[in-house]
Write a structure and sequence with these properties.
One of its GO terms (biological process) is carbohydrate transport. This protein is of the alpha+beta class. The protein has five helices and 18 strands.
Length: about 500
């Protein structure tokens, strides 16, 4: 460096690195541990006021009594060189003292080796950062998992004829491991492995099916239970492609704060409107959200997508269209949805959410279903919601072809943070899918469910810590399978959930 020269050769990138790890100082009074009586006060004041090339630590201190290495001094020197270079470039020559330039020239020669070494280190870091940015496809996979242990018992008379409780206390378990990978920071690839050993209690119509029973395997065999990839097409449209035996339409927005089979409802019916179960297990979900007040979802799920004889479009399927409205754009919890599902099933229509109705079992059935779902946040500790679902089904095979009407409804009460933050209380009162009329019964069977049974459920999730929660719950089924000849059933569940 020469006095009066308008180009000073020193590493600019070192200074950028230093600035990221220090706090700029515009007045020496900003340094909390520098006093006016200190021997170096005037020197520091001159450097700050003349060249602004002194930086403090993030806590506002200077730490002048600490020993300094040659590399640390080189970085500080580099900062001052950069400040002076800026003044020379701007032709502020009167602000640069000739004697100071001479001193800096000597210092630059003395610390030439350290400055060159620092430049090399910064260049290496920048090269590695640039390489990592280019290799974003080599994403990091994160693991999260759930373990459920549950004691389940159904008790009560199986029928009005006097039969006693025919279901014993059972112990169930389910393990899930989710491997989540993102390639762009906005997308997600999920691979889920699952093993379970859950058998539902004995109950007419299988109406006592528990929420966390998913899939048919009950031998703790590990299986790939879900494979899905979610990615944004643009700021308003996102796409989810998925396959897995428990997909259905529950990857969409079902408008129920008590949906979770891990930390909320204890029953399968309590998760959402039964019309969401009319889909298959493989397909695509497209979500379009033009603004914060409205969202549209379109979904198609096939049942035999991996069968060459059927494929995606020549077997059972479900196609759903849904519009969700948010009255208050600042409140994502309060919303109302209008849902339509067109479905085709080759093995009947499961209107009891777990079994085939006898009047339609074994037939090819097409259906159109309509639903209204809502949830309203009353205050921070109370939400009220529910749904109504109607299915118009047509039997396409059998001796007598015809139509059937099926209804289900529920009212949900949610109590977030009940007792303490993280807890959840829930009440669900409703009617599981009921066959109200059919023009195509099987021989000797009624055209409709003879009575109306009700589903009454309550649970309380108690959060022990961030990883463990316990949920006791009780379900009361009146006239199970919508037949008063079946005695009331009570289902008790104590579910313990571990999450990592």
């Amino acid at each position: 460096m020469k006095s009066g020269d308008h180009s000073i050769d020193f590493p600019q990138k070192v200074n950028q690195y230093v600035q990221l790890n220090s706090t700029p100082v515009t007045s020496v009074s900003q340094l909390s541990d520098v006093q006016s009586t200190d021997w170096a006060f005037q020197a520091l004041q001159s450097l700050v006021e003349r060249y602004s090339c002194i930086a403090g630590y993030p806590d506002g201190s200077f730490k002048g009594s600490r020993a300094m290495t040659r590399f640390e001094f080189a970085t500080a020197l580099n900062d001052c060189l950069d400040r002076i270079n800026q003044r020379i470039t701007a032709d502020i020559t009167d602000g640069v003292v000739k004697e100071d330039l001479a001193t800096l020239q000597k210092l630059q020669e003395e610390f030439k080796t350290e400055l060159t070494t620092l430049q090399g280190r910064v260049d290496i870091v920048e090269a590695r950062t640039e390489q990592l940015e280019k290799q974003q496809f080599s994403a990091t996979t994160k693991l999260n998992g759930q373990v459920i242990f549950a004691a389940v018992d159904a008790f009560g008379d199986a029928s009005r004829s006097g039969d006693e409780d025919n279901s014993n206390l059972t112990f169930s378990s389910r393990i899930r491991l989710n491997f989540d990978t993102s390639f762009t920071g906005k997308d997600q690839l999920r691979i889920r492995l699952q093993a379970s050993n859950i058998i539902n209690p004995n109950a007419p119509g299988n109406e006592a099916r528990v929420a966390f029973q998913s899939g048919s395997d009950t031998t703790n065999n590990v299986a790939l239970s879900k494979l899905q990839y979610r990615f944004p097409l643009n700021e308003q449209v996102s796409i989810l492609a998925a396959t897995g035996f428990n997909t259905y339409f529950d990857d969409g927005d079902v408008i129920n704060p008590l949906q979770s089979d891990v930390n909320a409802t204890i029953s399968r019916f309590g998760r959402y409107n039964a019309i969401y179960r009319l889909g298959g297990d493989t397909g695509v979900i497209v979500t379009y959200k033009p603004n914060r007040n409205i969202k549209a979802e379109a979904m198609y799920l096939a049942k035999n997508a991996n069968n060459p004889g059927n494929g995606l479009f020549n077997s059972g399927y479900g196609a759903l269209g849904q519009i969700v409205f948010y009255p208050n754009s600042e409140d994502p919890v309060t919303k109302i949805a209008f849902t339509y599902v067109n479905a085709y099933n080759e093995d009947g229509l499961g209107h009891n959410t777990g079994s085939l109705p006898s009047n339609l079992g074994g037939r090819k059935v097409s259906s159109n279903s309509y639903g209204i779902e809502t949830n309203v946040k009353i205050n921070s500790g109370f939400q009220v919601g529910g749904w109504v679902g109607y299915t118009s089904a047509r039997a396409l095979t059998g001796e007598v072809k015809g139509d059937a009407d099926i209804w289900n409804w529920a009212v949900t009460l949610a109590f977030p943070d009940l007792g303490k933050q993280g807890n959840l209380g829930g009440i669900i009162i409703g009617m599981q899918p009921r066959l109200t009329n059919t023009s195509a019964p099987l021989a000797g069977l009624p055209r409709r469910d003879p009575d109306t049974g009700f589903h009454i459920e309550g649970f309380y999730r108690y959060k022990i810590n961030d990883n463990i929660s316990i949920t006791p719950g009780l379900l009361w089924l009146t006239a199970p399978n919508h037949n008063s000849q079946n005695g009331d059933i009570f289902l008790g569940v104590i579910r313990t959930t571990f999450e990592i």
